[in-house]
Amino acid sequence: MREAILYFPVVGLVGPRQVGKTTLARSSTENTGKPILYFDLERPEDQDRLGDRPGWLLEQYATHTVILDEIQRMPQLFPQLRSLVDQNRQPGRFILLGSASPDLLARSGETLAGRITFMELTPLVRTEVSTTPYLTHWFRGGFPEPFLIDSDRIRTQWYRSFIQRYVERDLPLLGKLGTR
Q1: Using CB atoms within 10 A of its CB, is residue 105 exposed (0-12), middle (13-18) or buried (19+)?
Q2: Cβ proximity of 31 and 138 under 8 Å
């Protein structure tokens, strides 16, 4: 990701919740020499910070790397980001984080074509935890937090909570699934 930030004005990092997208984005921008401005678009306070004229606000931070977390919550930003990048095409200007929903990819791909590169972050794969016994990885799964939990009971609770939140909050964003 660090290399992409050095060459592309917009880097999109997609993947499921809780795989470490925010952590990776923040750590990848630490040594760029640019200040970082972070917005979590699930927080009403951060949406309010962007206000009615988010393009104008973001233009004020042209020398920063702006991280927009959960970008799918404000799809109206994509055309404004295109305009901002066209005015000032410096690398590492925006990092967009979000789920790999078809809507996110379609909207940003259309409006930011030639300005964005996408990277996908998945849960931990076998090669990343090669010192861990195969069955341990199999039963703990690949999400970093539960993978590190030693308690089967707590890990099960984590996954139940994660799945419930996904079904209640994320699936509806993908459209009318399972409705007749």
Answers
A1: middle
A2: no
Residues 130, 8: Cα–Cα separation, whole Å: 32
The pLDDT, as a whole number, for residue 100 is 56
Residue 60 has pLDDT above 60, yes or no: yes
User: Which residues are paired to 38 by β-bridges?
Assistant: 67
Mean pLDDT for the stretch of residues 96-120:
77
Q: Which two tokens stand for residue 165?
A: 């939140």
Nearest to 17 by CA among 150, 156, 140, 142: 142
- 8 A C-beta contact, residue 88 and residue 52: no
Q: How far is residue 73's CA from residue 176's CA, in Å, rounded to a whole number?
A: 17
Tokens encoding 170: 């994320």
Question: In whole angstroms, what separates CA 111 from the centre of its chain?
Answer: 18
HSE of 108, CA atoms in CB hemisphere, 13 A: 30
Q: How much of the chain is in helix, strand and coil states, percent to nearest 5? A: 50, 15, 35
pLDDT tens figures, 116-165: 998 888 888 888 888 888 888 888 888 888 888 889 899 889 888 888 87
DSSP 171: G
Tokens of 32: 């760029």
